[in-house]
């Protein structure tokens, strides 16, 4: 039995290392399915375009609240399960990292209690079971709902580890268990994770395990990845998985998909999101390895936040057309594929809105949710300017479709909201950019692109 504590992690490292020859020089890409695509588990054909926009705004509000909760709890530690939920039966004392104090820092996933904007297909187990999961640059752990799980999302059958010959639970003294950032417990000698922001916030609890994952590439081939560490969720309060059976963490933590693949993908991934107007008929791409190389890019260093669960840069300036807003206090801007809208510090957003009012000669209307809206029914030459973001040494030009949303047939609104804690570069602003992440150098690359041809 002693060998079981180290054998499977060792085999995982060997198996993933062997992938370097196969994929580092070729790479692979998978589809990203938008929330409103017919293949999305959240697709609702009865929604009007206006209803879809309102749903996107609601998803952003929930995501932004999730991010704020993340940062408010970043330096807090909750010793044990929330008082509203007791530890699972058979639990022992919490597992803590070797040679660490009793407390540790909570760095919870950012999945929030809401649907997400993009999905991807993963296949796990032997034989394989297809799962539609949420790829998330704000999360570090891969996890799926597993049988038994009474409150997990069950549009499709859950993954049943008992039927997979390649599934293995990880013990509490395994290295992956020590790498779990939030609370972990020993339950019948199995490493058990607990993901939460704290009392009253959605949570998931399950077994840390290893399994074979298979990805279908955009070329139709399959990439088989044995021994990936993931979470097999058995307990949830039912609010963390509305329309998804799992999360694929793409953050910088050692247990994220990107970090586990490591040198086999040269520590690189990227994505290219098609414009909103095409998300019902086209899919976007998530790329790994050599497929993630961004040609003609502006490359800058990311903020070193401990390289855990999010990617961020500094926002140093904004220009509307040819007119700069003037000096602004540099703020952290999270590059987040899970947020629909872009958010700016309240005073900066007010200055941007004032500049746009002076530039766009269309009648203004009130929306109630977004800060600036225009009625386009009276003119055809709208005159929306480019908005240029200064991100460190890089300049990112947001075209009108990156910065404005058509709310209904005649009303278009600025796709931004205030947030005084930090800024967010949302996925509307990221559309038609090839955005690459290099975890080895901790740099991010931006290049304008036609993502329909990715």
UniProtKB/TrEMBL annotation:
GO terms for molecular function: aspartic-type endopeptidase activity. Gene3D superfamilies: Acid Proteases (2.40.70.10). Residues 1-24 form the signal peptide. GO terms for biological process: proteolysis. The active site is at residues 136, 336. InterPro entries: Aspartic_peptidase_A1, Pepsin-like_plant, PEPTIDASE_A1, Peptidase_aspartic_dom_sf, Plant_Aspart_Prot_A1, TAXi_C, TAXi_N. This is Peptidase A1 domain-containing protein. It comes from Rhynchospora pubera.
């Amino acid at each position: 039995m002693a060998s079981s504590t180290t054998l499977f992690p060792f085999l995982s490292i060997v198996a993933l290392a062997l992938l370097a020859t196969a994929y580092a020089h070729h790479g692979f890409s998978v589809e990203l399915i938008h929330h409103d695509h017919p293949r999305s588990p959240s697709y609702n054909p009865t929604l009007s375009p206006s209803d879809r926009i309102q749903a996107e705004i609601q998803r952003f509000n929930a995501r932004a609240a999730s991010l704020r909760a993340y940062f408010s709890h970043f330096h807090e530690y909750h010793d044990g399960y929330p008082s509203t939920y007791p530890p699972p039966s058979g639990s022992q004392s919490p597992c803590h990292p070797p040679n660490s104090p009793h407390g540790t820092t909570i760095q919870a996933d950012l999945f929030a209690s809401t649907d997400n904007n993009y999905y991807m297909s993963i296949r796990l187990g032997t034989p394989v079971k297809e799962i539609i999961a949420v790829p998330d640059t704000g999360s570090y752990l891969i996890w799926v709902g597993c049988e038994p799980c009474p409150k997990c999302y069950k549009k499709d059958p859950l993954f049943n580890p008992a039927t997979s010959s390649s599934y293995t639970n990880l013990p509490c003294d395994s290295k992956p268990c020590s790498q779990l950032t939030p609370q972990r417990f020993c339950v019948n000698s199995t490493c058990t994770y607990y993901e939460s922001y704290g009392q009253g916030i959605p949570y998931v609890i399950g077994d840390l395990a290893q399994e074979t994952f298979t990805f279908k590439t955009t070329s139709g081939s399959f990439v088989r990845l044995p021994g990936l560490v993931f979470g097999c969720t058995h307990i949830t309060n039912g609010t963390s998985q509305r329309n998804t059976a799992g999360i694929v963490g793409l953050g910088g933590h050692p247990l994220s998909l990107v970090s586990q693949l490591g040198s086999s993908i040269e520590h690189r991934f990227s994505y290219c999101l098609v414009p909103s107007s095409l998300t019902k008929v086209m899919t976007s791409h998530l790329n790994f390895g050599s497929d993630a190389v961004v040609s003609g890019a502006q490359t800058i260093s990311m903020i070193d936040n401990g390289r855990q669960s999010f990617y961020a840069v500094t926002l140093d300036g904004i220009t509307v057309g040819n007119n700069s807003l003037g000096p602004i206090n540099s703020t952290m801007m999270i590059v987040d594929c899970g947020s629909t809208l872009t958010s700016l510090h309240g005073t900066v957003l007010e200055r941007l809105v004032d500049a746009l009012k002076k530039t766009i000669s269309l009648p203004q209307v009130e929306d109630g949710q977004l800060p600036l809206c225009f009625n386009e029914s009276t003119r055809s030459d709208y005159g929306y300017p480019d908005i240029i973001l200064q991100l460190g040494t890089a300049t990112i030009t947001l075209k009108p479709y990156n910065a404005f949303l058509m709310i209904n047939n005649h009303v278009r609104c600025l796709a931004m909201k205030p947030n005084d804690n930090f800024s967010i570069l949302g996925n509307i602003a990221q559309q038609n950019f090839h955005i690459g992440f290099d975890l080895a150098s901790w740099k991010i690359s931006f290049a304008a692109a036609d993502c329909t041809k990715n």
